[in-house]
């Protein structure tokens, strides 16, 4: 990631081997070098990796932040200190904990969009339960078939509700942290920091 930043790429891709907290810690470092959070999604084999995309922020304060960071951490990437993290690890320093927590919520909110069912997905899920019940009626008693189909439908319902409730709580935390809820061009809910510009640093311009 630091090599991408050193080349002053417009877009920096972060895909750590590990958890969302690690991705959030790296995103925080990128922010100190004048980048801003863009989006996060799952990729790789069985969607096992969290990919975070950061955009170079053209605003003057971002360039000041970058210059201060380069001066304070001249050996970052070569064994030296990295802004906001304990040296040699991805553990946030006390002064960075709150900011990393916000980034973790941003990443989790975006990644969970893959698992929050829309109306069509719910219809398909419950239709599959009905088909399962019909198939079971061929070899089992009506009571067993209905019970099995109902159990699967209940699991679907719990999964749908749990994902929606968790995402709603994350949205509340992001709003409390001062971020603004917007809709991207597909109509999905996203969050922006106040003053984040449309276009280059806001690829999902609302």
Describe the structure.
- 50% of the residues lie in helices and 14% in strands.
- It has 206 residues and is an alpha+beta fold.
- A three-stranded antiparallel β-sheet has the order 1-3-2. Strands 4-5 form a two-stranded antiparallel sheet.
- The radius of gyration is 22 Å and the shape is elongated.
- The chain starts with a helix and ends in a 14-residue tail after the last strand.
- The relative contact order is 0.13.
What is the gist of this entry?
The chain is α+β, with helices and mostly antiparallel strands. Helices cover 50% and strands 14% of the residues. The strands form two sheets. The chain has a three-stranded antiparallel beta sheet with strand order 1-3-2. A two-stranded antiparallel ribbon has the order 4-5.
Helix content: 40-55%
Q: Please report the number of helical segments.
A: 6
- Straight-line N-to-C gap: 28 Å
Major sheet:
3 strands, antiparallel
Poorly predicted ranges:
198-202
- Large-scale geometry: elongated
- Tell me the Rg in angstroms: 22 Å
């Amino acid at each position: 990631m630091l090599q991408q930043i050193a080349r002053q790429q417009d877009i920096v891709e972060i895909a750590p081997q590990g958890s969302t907290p690690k991705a959030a810690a790296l995103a925080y470092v990128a922010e100190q070098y004048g980048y801003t959070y863009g989006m996060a999604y799952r990729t790789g084999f069985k969607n096992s990796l969290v990919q975070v995309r950061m955009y170079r922020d053209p605003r003057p304060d971002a360039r000041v932040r970058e210059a201060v960071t380069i001066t304070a951490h001249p050996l970052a990437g070569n064994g030296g200190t990295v802004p906001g993290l304990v040296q040699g690890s991805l553990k946030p320093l006390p002064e960075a904990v709150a900011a990393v927590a916000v980034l973790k919520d941003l990443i989790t909110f975006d990644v969970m969009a893959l698992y929050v069912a829309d109306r069509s997905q719910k219809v398909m899920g419950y239709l599959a339960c009905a088909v399962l019940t019909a198939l079971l009626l061929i070899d089992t008693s009506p009571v067993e078939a209905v019970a099995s189909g109902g159990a699967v439908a209940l699991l679907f319902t719990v999964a749908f509700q749990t994902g929606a409730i968790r995402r709603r709580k994350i949205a509340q935390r992001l709003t409390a942290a001062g971020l603004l809820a917007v809709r991207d061009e597909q109509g999905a809910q996203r969050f922006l920091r106040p003053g984040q510009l449309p276009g280059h640093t806001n690829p999902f311009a609302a």
